[in-house]
Amino acid sequence: MGRLVFVCLLALAPAAPAAVWTNIGPYGGDSRSLAADASGNNVFVLNPRSGVFRSSFGGAWTLVFDAITRSVTPTRVAVDSQNGRVYVGTATGLFRSDDTGMTWRRVSDDSIVDVTAAADRVIAGTPTALRRSFDAGATWISLLSPVDSGAVSLVKFDPRSADRLLAVNEGSLFVSDDAGSTWRQLPLTGIVTATFADAIYGGGARGVYSCDPDCSQLGFDAVTEIAYFRGIVHVAVSDGVLKFDSGRWQRLLANFPDAVQRSLLGTPQELLVGTTAGVYSSIDDVSWTNRSLGLSNVHIIAMTIAGDSLFASTQEQSVMRRIGDLWTAADSGLTRHPPAPPVTRVLASDGSILYAGVVAEGLFRSTNLGQSWVDVTAGLPSRDVLDVAADPGIVIVATPARLVKSNDSGSSWQTFANYPGITASAVAVKGQLILAGNSSTIYASTDGGATWQSSALPSVIKKVTIAGTRAYAVTDFDVFVRSGGSWNRAALPASQVNAITMLGSRVFVSLGAGVYLSDDGIQWSLVPGSDTLPADITALVADSRFLYAGTNGGSVFATALLAVPSRVRSVRH
Question: How many secondary structure helices (H) and strands (E) does the chain include?
Answer without folding.
Answer: 1, 60
